[in-house]
Amino acid sequence: MNARALTVWSASALTITLSTDNPVYRGLIVVAALNVLLALRRPGVRLRPLLLGLCLAALIATAVTLLLSHSGAHALVILPGSIPIVGGGITLEALVFGATTGLGIAAAVLAAAPLSLALEAHQLVDALPRALSRTGAAIATAVNLIPGVTRSAHEIRDAQRMRGWRAGRVRDWPEIAVPIVLTAVESSVSVAEAMEARGYGGGSRTHFQLARWQMADVVAALVAAAAAVAFVTLRISGAIGAWYPFPTLTVPPLDPVAVACCVALTVPALLHPRGARGEYFHGYG
Q1: 46, 140, 211, 213 — which has fewest CB within 10 A?
Q2: Contacts of 34 (CB under 8 A, 6+ apart)
Q3: Top-confidence residue, 223 or 126
């Protein structure tokens, strides 16, 4: 999928997510984003770490809200008031509100996830306006350094363990930290030399092959943008109101048009089935 089209989709999904506190709409966005990720993710990309991280974040959001918010008409447990901060009623309304908050976090992260899991860094850089190409290249290089350092850390840790190293006292950690820092510095120098050899900063950006808009890209971008505009219009006009579980839990109201806007975000997954993606290359010269 074209990088600019996918950026429009991510911006639209994020706009809808931030425009509502209704758990049903947020849940629909999560489902749509998961379908897009499954259809467009790069070969070899694993979604399990992302999903586990989102589940952990949602659990933390739910637990914090449950323990700190004592509002609501339906108490599940009454903690002694002598317990600082968390003392008081643990209510059903607080539980639902915390779960809704966690669902919003998951929807927001999944809306932006395709930009890193479906696209290569150079595709994002190339999608930037020409005036921002150098800045984008620098940022992409810095971001790519993080997974490289992580892989290096795992390799060094395994090598040290084979030599008998064990994670115990704090003073033993320099045996891991020092090689990691040195490896990161060497990698940075290698990247800088490679960029210089390719003429980075010495002229205008060139392309080996341009990323072209296909009809599916145009349709996906237009549908996503229209869905976001329609949803925000409904929100501003009051057609879909705010939902709040306090003081008494109620069923979230649903609007058919708003539901259709959320479902429309699945269009890229329908138009770009997995395995039908083309390769994209470009260079700097």
Answers
A1: 46
A2: 110
A3: 223
